[in-house]
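User: Second chain of the day. Same drill as before.
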Amino acid sequence: QVLLVESGGGLVQAGGSLRLSCAASGSTFSNVDVGWYRQAPGKQREFVARISIGGRTTYVDSVKGRFTISTDNPKSTLYLQMDSLKPEDTAVYYCYRAFSWGQGTQVTVSS
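Assistant: Same format as last time:
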């Protein structure tokens, strides 16, 4: 099983930016479905963004135009660039690669 480790979370004011990273040990993010989910307190985990095997990117409507999912050239790291952050973006963010999940990183946006 692939071990995924997220980083980059933190506390930011509304309107600010953060970039989340997800590193995979012993594997890459090529030729597999990868993406990000998030879970806010008291809510179910929800889809945020993904890159399909064919390279197509998909976003939940609430983050379109603000978040960008990408990988680096060797596809060893998955990123989520988050701009124009809102308090409602506060959640624990999880990356996934096929059926493997990271442990999550906390993002808190203050108003």
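The mean pLDDT is 95.

User: Great, on to the next one.
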